[in-house]
Specification:
- The chain is built from one helix and no strands.
- With 33 residues, it is mostly helical.
- 0% of the residues are buried.
Length: 33
């Protein structure tokens, strides 16, 4: 059960990071201009 919960947390973190990456890219583009 604990391992499964840890896996779920890892998946949530990865999805969270993936959702944040576009924001980082846009901010970099704004910094470049």
């Amino acid at each position: 059960m604990l391992i499964r919960k840890k896996l779920r947390v890892n998946i949530n973190m990865t999805t969270f990071l993936y959702s944040l990456t576009p924001l980082v890219h846009t901010e970099r583009q704004f910094a470049m201009t």
